[in-house]
């Protein structure tokens, strides 16, 4: 919950409202750390998917009959 300082009077005019809560509360820091961990997991998963696609293409090429020439008996 955020507490906002409503106003102050300076020179007969209202000043800007100020936020009294800290900008680096434990909840914000834990949220940022969790977001970073989830982002790293997502990046790793996408990397694995791309690598699997590469392996699939690589082994399709190796297993093709054109890769193994016919032996003459």
From TrEMBL:
Family: Belongs to the vacuolar ATPase subunit S1 family.
Principal localisation: membrane
Presence of keyword Cytoplasm: no
Keyword Membrane (UniProt): yes
Annotated InterPro entries: Ac45_acc_su, VAS1/VOA1_TM
Record protein name field: V-type proton ATPase subunit S1-like protein
Domain of life the protein comes from: Eukaryota
Pfam families: Ac45-VOA1_TM
Keywords, ordered alphabetically: Membrane, Transmembrane, Transmembrane helix
Ranges where the V-type proton ATPase subunit S1/VOA1 transmembrane domain occurs: 25-59
Location in or out of the cell: Membrane
Residue stretches spanning the membrane: 28-52
Record's bilayer topology term: Single-pass membrane protein
